Amino acid sequence: MTESRRAAFLRAAWQPVDASSIGAFRVLFGLALFGGIVRFVVSGWIEVLFLRPTFFFKYPLLEWVAVPPAPVLYALYAMLAMLALALAAGWKTRLSALLFTVGFAYAEAMDVTNYLNHYYLVVLLGLLLAALPTGSAFSLGGGNSAATVPAWVLWLLRFQVAIVYVNAGLAKAGTDWLFHAQPLGIWMAARTETPVIGPLLHYGWTAFAMSWAGFLFDTTVVFWLSYPRTRAVAFAVLLVFHGLTRVFFEIGMFPVLMPIAATLFFAPDWPRRFLRLRPRLPPPLPARVGPRRHALVAAVVGVWCAFHLLFPLRHLVYPGDVLWNEEGMRWAWKVMVREKSGSITYYVRNPETGREWQVSPHRYLTWRQANEMSGQPDLIAQLARHIAADFRRRGLGDVEVRAEAWVSLNGRASSSMIDPSVDLARAPSGF
Description:
Blueprint: H1 3-13, E1 16-18, H2 20-42, H3 45-51, H4 70-89, H5 93-108, H6 117-131, E2 148-150, H7 151-171, H8 175-179, H9 184-189, H10 204-226, H11 228-248, H12 254-262, H13 270-275, H14 291-310, H15 322-325, E3 340-349, E4 356-359, H16 367-373, H17 377-393, E5 400-409, E6 415-416
Antiparallel strand pairs: 1-2, 3-4, 3-5, 5-6
């Protein structure tokens, strides 16, 4: 980029734009989070995910995250609900966003098997709301009262949403999704009793049509939302798309969260025009925003964007198929591109006495945890280390733990995922 273009870009980035679209997003986002938290508690998921299990899978470097007692858990989720409402109201926006994000991230870090892509998105958007001036519109107070924000603030929020869609589309650019209609074919075959459209799901071409439609939607919807002439149609298609995902799949708040995030691509003043509010006269931006501040903001935003562009692609430097070995699968927006079912059996042996045991994962895990773990090699190894530690604690010696893991990926015949000759109790852990 030439010096003149760079200067023009920076001038455009610091131009004031109406803050009402960001304010509307913040309100809707906060309300969606509140609804999601309430639904989570009422549906009994605290019991299922945190109180029934006796063992929890840990993220690397986050082994210290512990599951608190039931009263503390319920208090945590009550606090999250109140913070979500505070965020929606714009009450001390940055503090509310920061506290919500920290509490939500802690809750999600308590067990790896609870990972969902949209939970990760909630954390990222929460961090941005905590860092950016987003409390300026539709706020009850406690934030910046300005009617405008620099354009780069809106650009950055749009970028974060675009990353999700584009990477989800690129993840579908594979033979399983496009040429075998898998795993969509598996899921659709199980939903033929769906009202109205269920009969169509009996036909093989339906899964192919939906696979290609999903690929084209994810890879292009951001571009259609970015242009005024196609925005209304694109948003209507987006509502239908996410409405169908809500009908077919139990994926929590994702079908609600993404349409809310898509409103960031509307004209910055759309809420004022929709509500017929008279625009306030924007206060002037700081007249002397010096080059140092420009440079600092550009550096921080540049690092953030570079990370979120490159980190989802890290699987490209790992050997093998990411859908099979899971290396680089998390935090990469690979949405709904693999279906795994597996059968795992652990074989424990004391090398000093020669005594052997056959151990089922269900001895340590709930049904849900075992189902999630069965297709993820790092979690299979993590449970093996826990089994070894449990046997040592019970005085059964410094045992070896091996596993037979037969796993099916996207409807294929089951294959061995773990080398049964490797002692997983001593295998190195990693990302």
